Amino acid sequence: NHLRHVESMAKLPSGAGKITRLNALILGEALASEEDDLVFPSEIFSRQAHVSSPQKYLEMYRRSVQDPAGFWSDIASEFYWREKWGQQVYFENLDIRKGKIQIEWFKGGMTNICYNCLDRNIESGNGDKIAIYWEGNEPGLDSSLTYNQLLARVCQLANYLKDIGVRKGDAVVIYLPMLMELPIAMLACARIGAVHSVVFAGFSAESLAQRIMDCRPKVVITCNAVMRGSKIIYLKEIVDRALMESAHNGINTDVCLTYENKSAMKKEMTKWIKGRDIWWQDVIPKYPVTCDVEWVDAEDPLFLLYTSGSTGKPKGVLHTTGGYMVYTATTFKYAFDYKPTDIYWCTADCGWITGHSYVTYGPLLNGATVVIFEGAPSYPDAGRCWDIVDKFKVSIFYTAPTLVRSLMREGDEHVSRYSRKSLRVLGSVGEPINPSAWRWFFNVVGDARCPISDTWWQTETGGFMITPLPGAWPQKPGSATFPFFGVQPVIVDEKGVEIEGECSGYLCVKSSWPGAFRTLYGDHERYEATYFSAFPGYYFSGDGCSRDKDGYCWLTGRVDDVINVSGHRIGTAEVESALVSHPQCAEAAVVGVEHEVKGQGIYAFVSLVEGVPYSDDLRKSLVMVVRNQIGAFAAPDKIHWAPGLPKTRSGKIMRRILRKIASRQLDELGDTSTLADPTVVDQLIALADC
Ligand code: PRX
């Protein structure tokens, strides 16, 4: 189905759509719809691109789906394998009706992703190339590491970890801000076959404890504090609380390795637990700068990353080594049209999947120079990003729509006072990018010169799934365009039947790809139930999608109880369970609501314990309970006092009605007669602006 769409698209003479667009401009006519607005890459760009035309894409795509084994093993052969994989390049069963869901790629192959990121690039003569430029929170505070230096630092930490007894398969929790030490820690774990679990350093002590209790690490790696903008965050104190909580529950962590982040806080000021806490700077530099590699099977776990789902408990998404390595490297190369001379900056934090696949692994596997930034993009002012772009001559800039929208609000002058002439490719991730933000990003940031790769993917997918390939495709602002090589997305209806042509429905994938997650840590049943049961035979993404007449994909957002706030996934159930833990909260129902900057905001309906009056102080303490239990990024934007919630007679909360009230679409409430008590709706409406 997809092939047919692409084939018809590929027949368009290059530049054909331009006529439509130019005509519209010349005639001053509005385009029939946003979907018709085609933006072409320049010929100069296309000529130098890895994939220079729809025809070339089609050729590669066709092979990737008709001969996945051949396509991916050719690419995999470019990496170093201690031992080659077995006869069968991949094995998959995505059909729950046929038994256990199972995905394997390159099984039997022995490799190491850290070796492929560092040693392999050094051996090919890139040892003195900059691997990482680090930009601190304060302008002027920066440093860099070459590939040689990075390897030495990684080896020192790897040797230490081995020394304290961390072995292949052991979990290591990393709770660090965007310091060099974060990718160093990830790579050190990978080098010795340990499984890292990075927890975003904006998560609260409770969330961190929950993750620690689930994966039971021998060691937690953190730093004492970090400055974000003008605010200081005491990370070590959060870790102390989390470790206390997990110890209460019988899970003890032997070591808390703490980096002294001098620019934020001096060592002497940091609370210390003797016997457990170790200063990074005291021990790591003493270790040798070389460390033998632990060769692991392609299917051995590389990392765990917890993400939100529609039920309360975060899911430990597990990625393995070989397929993930091949997939992140390949997607990075093609979707950003990466060349060895590029300087690449992704604004994501390594605490999220984007930071795993496209700050650390994908770029380093390609031998790229990566910029990482410790601070806040609006500090000291809204021009900071472009200051960094000019400073390091960034050529590929990858960010989230929420940042684009917030900078757009600050005005063009913050952008135009910087040159940005080094930029050649822009990228977007995390949520649908609305066409007006797309255009601003394209016209103002990229001076109408840089294609935008709007990459659709997920923690679970490991890497890009639907993405433009700059230079190949005319773009449509707001569309993620076409699938990456080897990815076979389908749109299905409620019954799980594939729909053809122009349509809208649920986005599924019908075959495996190397970067796919293999299970949810310790809960394969939940893995099967969440992703493979709704539409048997397919991986279900949880997203809605429509396809236009030209075959372009338009992601329409989550269709489950997951809210996407500033590109961060938050389960409504997680926020609800935090709210109801407040002693004065009887019940809570949370929905997502459109938000100008964040994409979606969190809107919470809260019923209080009998006799408790609603007050501003109570509202603040309800918000606080969510901040403390999950993290500041999950704080509700609005608390709506609800003497009652709209429930069916069987007691089910009707979220559909709550969503309409939250977005003030009061004339679209629909049928409320099935509610146990229809008068609660009027009550809620009356209290909307309290
Ligand atoms: O709803 C989709 C949205 O983000 C979800 C995945 O979130 P997470 O696992 O945290 O990973 C974020 C970074 C990959 C998806 O289910 N999403 C991500 N990228 C896009 C997107 N929605 C639309 N367009 C995108 N480019």
TrEMBL record:
Cross-referenced SUPFAM superfamilies, in alphabetical order?
Acetyl-CoA synthetase-like (SSF56801)
- What is its pathway? Phytoalexin biosynthesis; 3,4',5-trihydroxystilbene biosynthesis; 3,4',5-trihydroxystilbene from trans-4-coumarate: step 1/2
Listed GO biological process terms:
acetyl-CoA biosynthetic process; acetyl-CoA biosynthetic process from acetate; phenylpropanoid metabolic process
Q: Tell me which residues make up the AMP-dependent synthetase/ligase domain.
A: 125-512
In short, the EC number is 6.2.1.1
Against InterPro entries, the record matches this protein to:
Ac_CoA_lig (IPR011904), ACAS_N (IPR032387), AMP-bd_C (IPR025110), AMP-bd_C_sf (IPR045851), AMP-binding_CS (IPR020845), AMP-dep_synth/lig_dom (IPR000873), ANL_N_sf (IPR042099)
Q: Name one GO molecular function term.
A: acetate-CoA ligase activity
Name all Acetyl-coenzyme A synthetase N-terminal domain ranges.
57-117
The source's domain of life comes to Eukaryota
What are the residue boundaries of the AMP-binding enzyme C-terminal domain, all occurrences included?
A: 574-652
Q: Which UniProt keywords apply?
A: ATP-binding, Ligase, Nucleotide-binding, Phenylpropanoid metabolism
UniProt similarity note: Belongs to the ATP-dependent AMP-binding enzyme family.
- Protein's UniProt name: acetate--CoA ligase
User: Which organism's genome codes for this protein?
Assistant: Nicotiana tabacum (Common tobacco)
The organism that produces this protein has a lineage beginning with: Eukaryota, Viridiplantae, Streptophyta, Embryophyta, Tracheophyta
